[in-house]
Structures are given as structure tokens and as C-alpha cells.
Q: What sequence folds into this?
């Protein structure tokens, strides 16, 4: 870990303790590991997530803040923007990352993604139940039974 990375993470930790959020919490794992953080998102103002608390794992690389941290949900989250394995579909975790982002702004963005409508055009997106039903209906050929030959039935019964 570079000294720049360590100083940056310590500065962010100090900022979080000065200005706590009402929708997320974050702290180093076990209280001391500055490279693996435990976080939670709660108190979301959305009917789908009201009253729920979601835990996240944040792994910070030695190249932080140049490289985004690896963030995933520990708990199962019912959202179209979260994969079943906990990976989050968020552009700032990939190609739109900027060193100006902090762990706090990242958690704010993740909370926002949970309350947003689904992102369209996701690669490997987990399909919703509605999408699965529609796909099954359109992809299954409708098979009708063969027409009944009434004359054959009469001959058989005679």
C-alpha cells in the first residue's frame, strides 16, 4: 500500500466520523483494516427497501484512489441493478471512476441506485420475474393437439 493511498483512506475515515450519514455507515473491517471496509446502507426512502439494512464489503486496492474499490453486497438485495452475487451495476465502479470520488460519495451513489428505476441495457443483467415470464411465453411454441377425426372415432365405436 502506498503512503498516498493510506493518507487518503485515513483522511476519508476522519471525514466520515466528523460528518456521519443518516443512510449509510462505513468503517474499517474489524475496526483496524484500512484496506477492507464493512459498510451498510439503511433508512432508504423507497417502499422496496423501507426498514431494511444491507451490508456491503469494500476492498480498497493499493492503487486507490486511482483505481475504484471493489464493492459488493453481502446481503441479498432485491434490485434490478444488483447481480445475484452482490455485484453492483454502477458506472462509477467501472469506467466512470474518478479519484475525486470518496467512499462516502460511492455509498451515496449505491443508495441512489437502489432507489432508482432499473438500468437498461445491462450486460449479464439478472432478469426480473416479469422478463422471465415474457421470454418463456414468446419463446415456447404453441402446440395445438391434432384435429380429431370424427369418422375414425365412429368406426372405432361401431
A:
Amino acid at each position: 500500500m502506498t503512503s498516498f493511498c493510506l493518507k487518503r483512506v485515513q483522511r476519508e475515515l476522519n471525514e466520515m466520523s466528523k460528518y456521519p450519514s443518516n443512510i449509510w455507515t462505513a468503517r474499517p473491517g474489524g475496526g483496524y483494516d484500512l484496506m477492507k471496509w464493512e459498510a451498510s446502507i439503511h433508512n432508504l426512502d423507497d417502499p422496496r427497501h423501507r426498514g431494511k439494512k444491507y451490508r456491503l464489503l469494500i476492498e480498497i486496492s493499493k492503487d486507490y484512489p486511482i483505481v475504484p474499490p471493489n464493492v459488493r453486497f453481502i446481503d441479498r438485495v432485491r434490485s434490478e441493478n444488483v447481480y445475484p452475487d452482490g455485484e453492483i451495476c454502477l458506472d462509477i465502479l467501472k469506467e466512470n471512476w474518478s479519484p475525486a470520488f470518496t467512499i462516502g460519495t460511492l455509498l451515496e451513489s449505491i443508495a441512489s441506485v437502489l432507489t432508482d428505476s432499473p438500468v437498461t441495457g445491462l450486460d449479464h443483467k439478472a432478469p426480473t420475474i416479469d422478463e422471465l415470464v415474457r421470454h418463456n411465453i414468446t419463446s415456447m411454441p404453441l402446440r395445438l393437439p391434432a384435429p380429431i377425426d370424427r369418422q375414425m372415432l365412429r368406426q372405432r365405436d361401431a
About this structure: Residues 3-18 form the longest helix (16 residues).
